[in-house]
Amino acid sequence: MPYREQIGARLWNAADNTGQVIVQHTTESEGGNTSVIGYLERTRAGSYQTMVDFDGEEVRMVPDNRQAWGAMNQGNRRGLHVCAMGRAEWDRARWLREGKLLERTAMRYAEWSRLYSIPLVKISAPQAAAGQRGIVGHIDISAAFHESDHWDPGHHFPYDVVIARAREINTGSTNKEDTMPSAQDIAKAVLDTQLTRPDGTPSETVGNVLAWIDQHAAQLVVEQLGPGSEAIRGHVVNPTRWDELGDRTQVEALAALLEAAGIGPRPVK
Ligand SMILES: [Zn+2]
To answer: Given a cut of 90, is residue 181 above it in pLDDT?
Structure first.
C-alpha cells in the first residue's frame, strides 16, 4: 500500500501529546488525500498525524510526538489522530466496502499500539474523560470534553472490524491461515541445511554432521569405558568395562599394567 510523508507545512503544536488515545476521524469529503491535505495546508485549518485514503494510501502529516490540530485542546493534547477518507453519515455496509482503507487503518492502530502500548480497545467518552487509554472517535472526544460538536467518524464506523484486524496483525496470526512455521518445520529446515567447508566446497547437511559427531563420540566412550557405555545416560556414567581387560576400563587396565610392571609415578622435571 502506498505511503508517504508530507510534513513541510508543519501543521502542529510543538508540544508532545500524551498518547492516551487513538482518535479516529473522517474527512467528510471523498476527493482523496492530495485534495484534503492541500486544503489543510492552504487554510491551516486542521491536521492529523496521518491520513488514509480509499486505496489504502497513508500520508503522514504530523509526527507522533507533536500535537495535531484535530480535536480542540483536550483531544489534540491527548491523542494520536488518524483521518479516514469518508463520511460520518455512512452506514456499516458502506464502510465495509472500503477494505483497503480499513486494512491500512488497522495497520496504523496496530503500530501505534505496539509503539506506545495503547490498548486495542474501543473506549467510551466517559472512559476517555477519566483518562483511560484506548481508541475513540472524534465524536467521543466531543462528548467527553464539550469543546466542539464534531461527530465524525459517525455512529457506524466499523471499529470492531478494524480493531480485530489490528490485533491479528500484532499477534502474527490470522483467521484464514496460520502463517507461523511450527517448531518441527523450523527444526527440519535447520537439519536439512547444507553446510559449506572452509574451502568453499559443499559439505554434508547439519543433520548428518550431528549424527556423525554423536557416532564418533559414542565410539570413544565405548573404547574408554566398555561396551554399551555410550547408551548410559545421566549425571555420571557407570562404566560397563571390558571382559578382555579383566572387567576393567582402558584406564583401569593401564593402571593395573603399570602397577604390575613396577612403573612408578612420572618424574617431575
Ligand atoms: Zn474529526
So the answer is: no
Q: What is the DSSP string of 64-106?
A: TTSEESSSHHHHHHHEEEEEESB-TT--HHHHHT-HHHHHHHH
Question: For 197-239, what is each residue's pLDDT tens digit?
Answer: 889 888 899 999 999 999 999 899 899 888 888 888 776 678 8
260 alpha carbon – ligand 1 mean position (Å): 99
Which of 10, 61, 54 lies closest to 30 in space, CA to CA? 54
**CA 56–ligand 1 middle distance (angstroms):** 19
**238 CB neighbour count, 10 Å cutoff:** 10
C-alpha span between 159 and 215 (Å, rounded) = 60
Measured in Å, residue 21 CA sits from the centre of ligand 1 at 14
With both helix axes pointing from N to C terminus, report the angle between 206-225 and 250-260 in degrees, rounded to the nearest 10.
30
Spatial distance between the Cα atoms of 75 and 23, rounded to a whole number of angstroms: 8
Look at residue 193 in the predicted model and tell me its pLDDT. 93
Q: How far is ligand 1, taken at its centre, from the CA of residue 141, in Å? A: 9
Residue 101 grid coordinates: 482503507
Ligand 1 centroid distance, CA of 104 (Å): 18
C-alpha torsion sign, points 106, 167, 71, 5: negative
Render pLDDT for 241-258 as a digit per residue (tens, 0 to 9). Answer: 999 999 999 999 999 999
Q: Which three cell numbers stand for residue 184?
A: 518441527
